[in-house]
Amino acid sequence: MTGDKRKVFGIGWPKTGTTTLGHCLEILGYSHVGCRLDLVDHLPSGDLAPILDVARAYDSAEDWPWLLLYRELDAAFPGSRFVLTQRDPEALTRSYRNMVAAQVRDATLDRRREVLYGFAPLEASDEQLVARVKGHNAAARAYFADRPGDLLEVDWSRGDGWAELCGFLGHSIPEVPFPRANAGDYKTPAWRRRLVERGRPLMRRLAATKLLSWPLGRRS
Length: 220
Known about the structure:
There is one protein chain. By secondary structure, the protein is an alpha/beta fold. It contains eight helices and five strands, in the order βαβαβαβαααβαα. The radius of gyration is 18 Å and the shape is globular. InterPro entries: P-loop_NTPase, Sulfotransfer_4. This is Sulfotransferase family protein.
């Protein structure tokens, strides 16, 4: 990995382009871990050791449960960088509703959501969901208020991309298109979306090293 080798944590709310951020970090050479809902089970007891052990094994992380733990991650890994992905809260809420509507209800998932949100999000009003996101963003900004160099705020929907992220992390801009991941595809089964998404970073890295210069689909 080139550039600044400090850990990077995405602390934006889900549906703000967190998966896109993860792909970007993988392209830049960071080992990465995304959403780990299984780790949420450690939050009620306050036993964060298993969560920090996972974070220790990677260069970067985003989504649940990482976004809630920026204070603890900051203390455990001094010098880390944090990226607050943002999106219009009302649009985010609509996207969340669409995602949930496409999922099969699961008691374990519902319980974990209540831990993460602080209330039952599936029964909550749009106003409650918007307030939760705005409150999270405001708290993160306040925490890093006297350390602006450690927090980057981006909104991919407004044109932010490689320039902002690479400038913040000290990397050269890679010669690959900026990824746009997980953009509201809820008709494809979740397992298939995950399989495709996990394969894309490798394909992009291969493309970046010009190993995929041979046109796909071309026959000799």
